[in-house]
Amino acid sequence: MFIGSAMRLSKNFTLFIGQHVGSTKREKKFDQFVKNSKNAMSEISTQIYKKIGLDKEVYLYAMNCDEGIDLANYLNQENCELIPNLMNSLNTAMNLLQQAEFTDDISLAGKEKITRLIFEAQDLVNKLTNEPTITADLLEFLAKQEHKSTDEMLKAIKNKDTDVNQAKYKKILVLVIISLALFYAVLFLI
Questions:
Q1: Is the pLDDT of residue 162 over 50?
Q2: 17: helix, strand or coil
Q3: Of 69, 119, 134, 183, which is the most buried if we count CB atoms within 10 A?
Q4: 123: confidence class by pLDDT, cuts 50, 70, 90
């Protein structure tokens, strides 16, 4: 829909000033493609952890600590070969998607490339094998580094995740309160 005004400047010339309101069919399709692609990549990321049997919180904790952990030491040879290709496919698809979002447009070739990369990543995830001891081995390494038992280490990791979530909620609450305060301040000034 177009909302605007027109001003007749002469018999043969009219000036239109306005704005398109709402999304066009093409914009809706683009937004849906972006949403579907992001959901698929997020699902693939979740499937990676499940497929190899790695606890996501333990992995994220291990990668954030300064212990110099190389995940390749805990994976079998087949998974070590698949994961770099898998991450490359996901990263390339995400970069292309971010470029498309930045420009608010994507060509048919771009859509096809992103879709091909997502399906390629899904095929690689399906080839991953389960590593039944990877979480336990990683926990054992972390526990040794911090001089704790594996149970204490697991509790510390789970509590740290809870603390991070609580901190996020506190930040969101503070932003909402500030936004409301600014809204009411502006409302009363008008």
A1: no
A2: strand
A3: 134
A4: very high
For the record, the structure tokens of 76 come out as 């079998």
Host H or E run for residue 41? helix 25-52
Task: Judge if pTM exceeds 0.70.
Answer: no
The tokens for 110 are 């771009």
Spatial distance between the Cα atoms of 139 and 53, rounded to a whole number of angstroms = 13
- The residues facing 19 across adjacent strands are 3
pLDDT of residue 116: 95
Nearest to 37 by CA among 111, 132, 136, 141: 111
Kindly report the number of other CB atoms within 10 A of residue 137's CB atom.
13
In whole angstroms, what is the distance from residue 170 CA to residue 161 CA? 14
How far apart CA 48 and CA 44 sit, in angstroms, is: 6
